[in-house]
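Pipeline run #58 for the internal structure catalog. This entry was flagged by the ingest filter as a single-chain record with no existing model, so it goes straight to prediction. Upstream metadata was stripped on purpose; only the residue string is passed forward. Reviewer on rotation: M.T. Logging verbosity set to normal.
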Amino acid sequence: MTDSLILSILADGAFAAVAATGFAVISNPPKKAILIAAGLAAVGHALRFYLLHNTVLDITTASLAAAFAIGLISMLAAKLIHCPAEVFSFPSLLPMVPGMYAYKTVLATIRFMSSHGTGDPQELIVQICQNGLTTIFVMFALVIGVSLPMFIFHKQSFMMTRLLNNKRPA
């Protein structure tokens, strides 16, 4: 790996950590959880950046892999600091929401609705479909990726919930 690639990955992770910190603070979690959410966002976003720029993966598949990593690490962190995994995973995913694709979808839709014969309506419909579907698929990938570890390790997750509620495990 080149130095510029490493610096790009680290910068991407750092910016994601700042954004996740802002999202995490809104929900008023414990201070340890804010730091973990920032770290998870940095790791997840940096992983997605690496996969997008150094492999043949598209944004949806790279987002799925990054969200899966966030889900796994958040389950481990939940056990360590006795806090639900969702407290770290959801703020960590928010920097990966495909806002630019959603914006381009809405912009093309507005241009299509107000064109009145100017411009190419077929090109606008293609933009609406491409950007809209990309937005939807990336959002589904984020949800599925972060949820899969909870389904795969359901027993461990369920036992942790029972222990956190001070009940005896079955």
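catalog note: Residues 3-164 form one domain.
catalog note: The chain has a mean pLDDT of 87.
status: ready for reviewer M.T.
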